């Protein structure tokens, strides 16, 4: 039944039915959690062979002793593995640490204070600003907040950020120094940026103020749910064509490939920025964990091995995403009170309620024992102006828990919507 066109009597009857259902859930005292954007225990177990894989051989192919300092920007074989998997040039890659988020934080800080192949942002008059496509990844926004960078939200659709708006903002303000992008299976919408959007983002350096950087966070580049998932156009190829390679910083890691928090992360950039990054990195590190890099080379081997490994993740993840979609489409598709995208990869489903209801739905679900990411978390400063967006993270819980939690979630959405329509 489309609730938007239902009569008042129909809505009242439905409200009574849903309230009863909701009370039953509340009484059950459940404790379910759809907040955690991290791999499940089954997924991390796919990489258990990392343990002991070196069998006591602590030397890299070129004879480097992995146990000792040095090799600041990573082992050549690890660079090649990332280059082949992400469609990059190995010479553009620096491998450092276990976290791409740390590399993003460092890049913003270095660009701000020292400059990354350009003058430091804070040498210019005026407040540094970033464009933040929304809904987006809360930790990107936290980096800006921590480093005193003002955030300007820009809407997205299923093709990525609205580029007319992005270009107009950038043309009007040379103090916009960055844009956050999660281009394939965006966190949280799951969209894949279209070829047109990638091309236009690559060319932003031509119209932006000096030192502008695209923060291309390809966290979910290879995290597909099916083999036919939409591909992403190469931003580095587009930037080469546009002559804007200096404006692109690309990030990735094996966090959701092998062990989250015990993987390998990289930054890829053209040389003025890359060499500047490495110069500053060298002050803060004598060398990365090469033992772990070698373990990853031995486990994943090459781009095909990487792909085969990701296919095992997909077997675990697809049923979880299918359950979410089943509840949403069966419970809400006909009701006309919500929208969502059906992702072909990544870690999230992004859900939009009727305006003004996201906080209410999250609070209702919590009372019925289902923890959801706080409404607003997907917007800069935690402020979703329309109060519609809710991020659903189905990778970590057991399938039965997702099934139960989504049933409750759908009931909460319907109940909150019916009450709003009656008010
Ligand atoms: N970027 C995005 C978009 C993410 O969703 C996440 C983790 O949830 C990260 C980066 C963190 O990556 P890493 O573990 O490499 O720091």
Automatic annotation (TrEMBL):
One of its GO terms (molecular function) is transaminase activity. InterPro entries: AspAT_Ic (IPR024551), PyrdxlP-dep_Trfase (IPR015424), PyrdxlP-dep_Trfase_major (IPR015421), PyrdxlP-dep_Trfase_small (IPR015422). Pfam families: Asp_aminotransf. Keywords: Aminotransferase, Transferase. CDD domains: AAT_like. This is Aminotransferase/MSMEI_6121. It comes from Sinobacterium norvegicum. The lineage of its organism: Bacteria, Pseudomonadati, Pseudomonadota, Gammaproteobacteria, Cellvibrionales.
